[in-house]
Design brief:
Helix content is 79%, strand content 0%. By secondary structure, it is an all-alpha fold. It has a single domain, classed as Growth Hormone, Chain: A, CATH 1.20.1250.20. The longest helix is centred in the N-terminal third of the chain and has 29 residues.
Length: 398
């Protein structure tokens, strides 16, 4: 089969993938929105960075609670209604956030919205495993992994200016409209991939976590690599505004462009992994690059150079490149019977780390500086490098 040859059910596969990407993008807009409220909350309303970072982390805290549950539901009932139902509930949570009185109530609805938006994270990954053949999964998962940077791009380009002009309620109209529309579209358009025929005599699917430590190592590597990613997505915009003195709109454009380039880069890494026949080799290259670029960002930040915006763009591109590789590797190792739960575990670990980034890095920046925080963050991808399984271990588990 060539790289461009058609494959069975290609139309259904690409339709499901397209809607899955759009669904997760809309959910990501909701999850990312609080981070882009930080300039309003910190510079105009007097919140400390630690407090604003904690509020920004509440959707990811919600994600942590329910990711494995949504994955188990997708394994049991299929992807279609898990994705559509989760988005509908996210839209309802957004309505609650718009009507909330006070920051505590706002945080509660952000938490609830994160819990239900998690449906798209596990289920949309299962679409790739179910519909695409192995030699297309790197490309397909790269496309799927565009959702997060695209969602952050949408949020970066819309939320700061809307919040500045109309307040928090005006900004929340963006995720409300997107999640409501995509809930309907996914309910209509997604077709669940075929499932293996059930057998009354077949043994229960083997637990892949008991076979070796391969999956656990990928999970741990992904946790370490998510720290620079969420550091930049949470504080990149406010760093440009407060340290490099960019206007809010200009900073939003920089972050939005960076996220879009990162989204395209995920596709490129997926194609590269298909070409080299490995997910772990490119993953190691990403880890090395992420550590190096965070140190470079610290150097530019220490000097206060506005060219640091270009370094930030590069850093935000590099630090999101690993997700598709790790997700594809996990999905291939587990198969359709365990993929939803395994991807839920993967996301849970990442979002636990991501939830800690906002308040902890906010506090570190508050007592030290952005450059020092960037140096500390560079340590995490450096620690991931020796933990990445080698190619021989990958072949043994395929």
């Amino acid at each position: 089969m060539t790289a461009t040859a058609p494959f069975p059910n290609a139309t259904k596969a690409w339709t499901a993938l397209t809607l899955g990407v759009a669904a997760q993008t809309s959910g990501t807009v909701f999850v990312a929105t609080p981070a882009f409220l930080i300039p309003l909350l910190h510079t105009e309303r007097g919140m400390s960075l630690a407090q604003a970072g904690l509020l920004a982390a509440t959707p990811t805290m919600g994600l942590v609670v329910t990711l494995v549950l949504w994955g188990a539901l997708a394994d049991r009932f299929g992807e279609k209604w898990v994705i559509a139902g989760g988005l509908a509930l996210t839209a309802l949570a957004t309505v609650g956030a718009i009507a909330a009185q006070g920051y505590v109530a706002l945080g509660i609805f952000f938490l609830l919205g994160g819990m239900v938006s998690a449906s798209t994270n596990s289920a949309s990954g299962k679409v790739v495993v179910g519909w695409f053949p192995k030699d297309r999964r790197g490309l397909a998962m790269g496309v799927r992994q565009m959702a997060q940077p695209l969602g952050i791009t949408v949020a970066a380009l819309t939320i700061p200016s809307l919040a500045s002009a109309g307040g928090i309620g005006a900004a929340l109209l963006v995720p409300l409209i997107l999640t409501a529309v995509l809930a309907v579209a996914c309910a209509i358009g997604i077709v669940n991939p075929p499932r293996p025929a059930a057998s009354t005599t077949a043994a229960a699917p083997r637990n892949p976590y008991r076979a070796s430590g391969f999956l656990w190592r990928i999970h741990l590597v992904s946790i370490l690599l998510v720290v620079p990613q969420f550091t930049l997505s949470t504080f990149g915009l406010v760093w440009l505004v407060t340290e490099l003195h960019f206007p809010a709109l200009g900073a939003g454009v920089v972050v939005g462009v960076a996220q879009f380039v990162g989204a395209v880069g995920r596709i490129g890494m997926g194609v590269l992994s298909d070409r080299v026949g490995s997910r772990v080799r490119p993953l190691r290259w990403v880890a090395v690059s992420a550590s190096a670029v965070m140190l470079l960002l610290a150097a530019f930040g220490a000097e206060g150079w506005q060219a640091g915006a270009l370094v930030l763009l590069i850093a935000m591109t590099v630090t999101v490149a690993d997700n598709g590789l790790a997700f594809t590797s996990i999905a291939e190792m587990t198969g359709p019977s365990w993929a939803g739960r395994a991807l839920g575990v993967q996301n849970t670990g990442q979002y636990i780390a991501a939830s800690a980034v906002g308040p902890l890095l906010g506090a570190l920046i508050g007592v030290a500086s952005y450059p020092l925080a960037f140096v500390v963050v560079a340590i995490f991808p450096a620690l991931a490098i020796p933990l990445i399984p080698n190619r021989a271990a990958e072949r043994d588990h395929l």
